[in-house]
């Protein structure tokens, strides 16, 4: 191990509500300062010297390259327009997925490439953020960004030729790679979202093809105009365009609509935050709304769309049940509803009047995702921990059938066993987790385990096929996914119990899951590794500082670590609806109580820690892992390594295959080394 880096300590003090907080590493927030650049380079050299010297890294990387790049073809984001189907297709040995079209969903369909990012940029650093086809499928808006920045430029492509047919619109990706575009019914133009130069005050603009005189449509009445996020969609009949406007990132939505045909039409508010409508889809003359107003699990409302109609005029067509509703889609005659129960998902269908139709069979402990509809056909993807995603389709009145679009490759996880376990959290709440391991794995505490979690933004960790996990399982270990409060696995109440003043529940849940794995012999304390990214990186930081003895090794990827200054950043301000603000005295005390950076204790025996960050990360500024690395390196009394791995990328969105291979190789080599597990190549 290279010698520790002597990081200068420059105390700076801030005061909130009469409480003074002093820190030593705020100077690292200045990314362009010569001192920060030199310090970061020194950290990166030290980390690379350590990781590259690990005896198993080269073999691990070769295995991960096999699993992630060599033999896999997959499709995602399948959407129909006119007689054409659009999808992002990943092919073997390609760094980025391509936008392709298909004449159908069967084996004999004609497929062609519309946009190939690798042809535009051979480095693999250009990615497709999202795409939205015109109603007839003749043109498509594609957002492209570089180096993980998610700073998208909109291009309009002619589908038949693959040619760009309009002037690009730069910096038009305000909702962090969310498709904030809605075409007008005649394909003459589209509405799109755009923020100011600082990343705030998003507005809806209209762009007419062939014109550079875009029109800004200022919408009044946003709950918080500074941090609104506009997600746009249009009705298939060409009558209305909808703006689902989120107040920050905390799951608080209001809905606005306007007529498509009248250029001077005014927007009106369909639903406010208090109405708790979180999803919406058009069908026929109606707007279907997923509402939490009467149930934490959600019900579906039907609103006949006329100018000025509001949620007060809606009627319930699908009442709340015992599972949380997650997604809606509607075909000409059918309403499709996906749901979740603690992690595993299901799918139901109804008539547009709410009459229940025959159920859709979904394998146990599986995920239903990317539910979409085009005309009379609904499509969705099904995957599990052991089986990759396969696309299914159903025309109105028919039986659901598997399409020709699925993930194909040489990776097999079907020989591993999937079990559901429950831990008891500090307040008595039962917390589910899923364990993936060999069927004959002993419960004697001898086997390594990798535990991961997230717990925020109502994002649910559903069963997902991850081929790279095989490289971990082949070492005789278990891979464990915890479904923590703060997620949406049991509906909106589960989310609310892990946000704002209740964020500690998320950390308690994860600690309980880790302790359960040890208590039941699935692993031992010295064989347990934990890993999480983004909000899951915050989770790692919190449990690391609250329970240094919890695990032997930790990976915190692109993590939020300073909860007192996170809202000083552009994206951090959007997160106050999930975390709270230091401007609120009560929430300041909560944030101060768990902020990882502020709760590192000098002399504590911290486990081995690998922190990662992206210099161009638009979601979590790079100084979070930098400051945490400096603080932990100065404080730890265990002698275990604290490493900082930075790269010239973003938050992981749009990451090339090569980048992912290198990153996961570093994760696994580091964790197996600290768990004293010698890598065994597969036989």
Short description:
By secondary structure, this protein is an alpha+beta fold. 18% of the residues lie in helices and 33% in strands.
Topology readout:
Layout: E1 12-16, E2 19-23, H1 34-52, H2 57-70, E3 74-81, E4 84-90, E5 98-102, E6 111-115, H3 117-120, E7 126-133, E8 139-146, E9 153-158, E10 181-183, E11 189-194, E12 203-208, E13 215-217, E14 228-234, E15 240-247, E16 253-259, E17 268-271, E18 277-283, E19 286-291, E20 299-304, E21 315-318, E22 324-330, E23 334-340, E24 345-351, E25 366-374, E26 377-384, E27 390-395, E28 401-406, E29 417-424, E30 430-437, E31 449-452, H4 469-473, E32 478-482, H5 492-496, H6 504-519, E33 528-533, H7 535-546, E34 553-557, H8 570-574, H9 576-579, H10 585-594, E35 608-614, H11 623-635, E36 642-647, H12 657-674
Parallel strand pairs: 31-32, 31-33, 33-34, 34-35, 35-36
Antiparallel strand pairs: 1-2, 3-4, 4-5, 5-6, 7-8, 8-9, 10-11, 11-12, 12-13, 14-15, 15-16, 16-17, 18-19, 19-20, 20-21, 22-23, 23-24, 25-26, 26-27, 27-28, 29-30, 30-32
Helix pairs in contact: 2-12
């Amino acid at each position: 191990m290279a010698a520790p880096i002597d990081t200068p300590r420059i105390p700076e003090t801030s005061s909130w509500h009469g409480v003074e907080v002093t820190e030593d590493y705020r100077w690292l927030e200045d990314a362009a300062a010569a001192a920060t650049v030199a310090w970061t380079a020194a950290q990166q050299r030290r980390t690379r010297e350590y990781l590259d010297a690990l005896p198993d890294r080269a073999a691990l990387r070769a295995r991960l390259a096999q699993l992630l790049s060599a033999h896999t073809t997959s499709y995602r984001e399948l959407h129909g327009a006119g007689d054409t189907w659009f999808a992002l297709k990943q092919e073997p040995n390609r760094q980025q997925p391509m936008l392709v079209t298909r004449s159908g969903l069967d084996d004999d369909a004609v497929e062609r490439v519309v946009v190939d990012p690798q042809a535009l940029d051979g480095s693999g650093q250009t990615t497709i953020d999202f795409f939205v086809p015109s109603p007839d499928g003749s043109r498509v808006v594609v957002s492209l960004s570089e180096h993980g920045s998610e700073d998208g430029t909109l291009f309009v492509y002619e589908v038949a030729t693959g040619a760009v047919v309009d002037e690009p619109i730069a910096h038009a990706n305000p909702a962090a790679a969310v498709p904030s575009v809605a075409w007008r019914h005649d394909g003459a133009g589209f509405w799109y979202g755009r923020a100011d130069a600082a990343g705030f005050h998003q507005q809806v603009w209209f762009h007419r093809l062939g014109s550079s005189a875009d029109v800004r449509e200022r919408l009044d009445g946003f709950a918080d105009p500074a941090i609104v996020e506009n997600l746009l969609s249009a009705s298939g009949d060409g009558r209305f365009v909808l703006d689902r406007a989120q107040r920050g990132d905390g799951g608080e939505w209001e809905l606005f609509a306007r007529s498509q045909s009248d250029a001077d039409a005014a927007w009106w508010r369909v639903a406010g935050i208090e109405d708790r409508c979180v999803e919406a889809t058009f069908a026929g003359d109606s707007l279907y709304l997923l509402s939490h107003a009467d149930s934490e699990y959600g019900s579906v409302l039907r609103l006949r769309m006329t100018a000025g109609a509001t949620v007060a005029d809606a009627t319930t067509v699908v009442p709340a049940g015992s599972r949380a509703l997650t997604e809606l889609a509607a075909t000409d005659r059918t309403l499709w509803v996906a749901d979740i129960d603690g992690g595993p998902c299901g799918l139901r269908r109804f008539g547009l009047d709410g009459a229940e139709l025959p159920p859709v069979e979904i394998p146990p402990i599986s995920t239903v995702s990317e539910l979409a509809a085009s005309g009379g056909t609904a499509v969705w993807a099904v995957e599990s921990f052991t089986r990759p995603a396969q696309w299914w389709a159903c025309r109105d009145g028919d039986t659901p059938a598997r399409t020709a679009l699925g993930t194909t490759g040489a990776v097999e996880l079907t020989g591993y066993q999937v079990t559901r376990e429950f831990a008891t959290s500090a307040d008595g709440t039962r917390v589910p987790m899923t364990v993936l391991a060999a069927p004959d794995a002993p419960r004697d505490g001898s086997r390594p385990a990798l535990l991961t979690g997230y717990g925020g933004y109502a994002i649910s960790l559903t069963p997902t096929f991850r081929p790279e996990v095989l490289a971990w399982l082949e070492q005789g270990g278990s891979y464990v996914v915890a479904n923590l409060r703060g997620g949406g696995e049991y509906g909106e109440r589960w989310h609310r119990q892990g946000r704002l003043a209740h964020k500690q529940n998320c950390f308690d849940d994860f600690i309980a899951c880790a302790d359960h794995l040890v208590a039941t012999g699935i692993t031992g304390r010295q064989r347990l590794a934990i890993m999480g990214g983004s909000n899951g990186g915050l989770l790692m930081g919190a449990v690391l500082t609250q329970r240094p003895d919890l695990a032997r090794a930790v990976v915190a990827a692109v993590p939020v670590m300073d909860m007192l200054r996170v809202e000083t950043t552009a994206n951090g301000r959007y997160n106050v609806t999930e975390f709270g603000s230091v401007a609120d005295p009560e929430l300041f005390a909560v944030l101060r109580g768990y902020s990882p950076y502020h709760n590192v204790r000098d002399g504590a025996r911290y486990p081995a820690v690998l922190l990662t960050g992206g210099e161009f990360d638009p979601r979590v500024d790079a100084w979070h892992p930098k400051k945490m690395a400096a603080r932990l390196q100065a404080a730890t009394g265990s002698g275990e390594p604290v490493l900082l791995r930075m790269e010239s990328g973003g938050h992981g969105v749009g990451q090339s295959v090569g980048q992912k291979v290198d990153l996961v190789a570093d994760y696994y080599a580091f964790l197996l080394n600290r768990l004293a597990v010698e890598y065994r190549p597969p036989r």
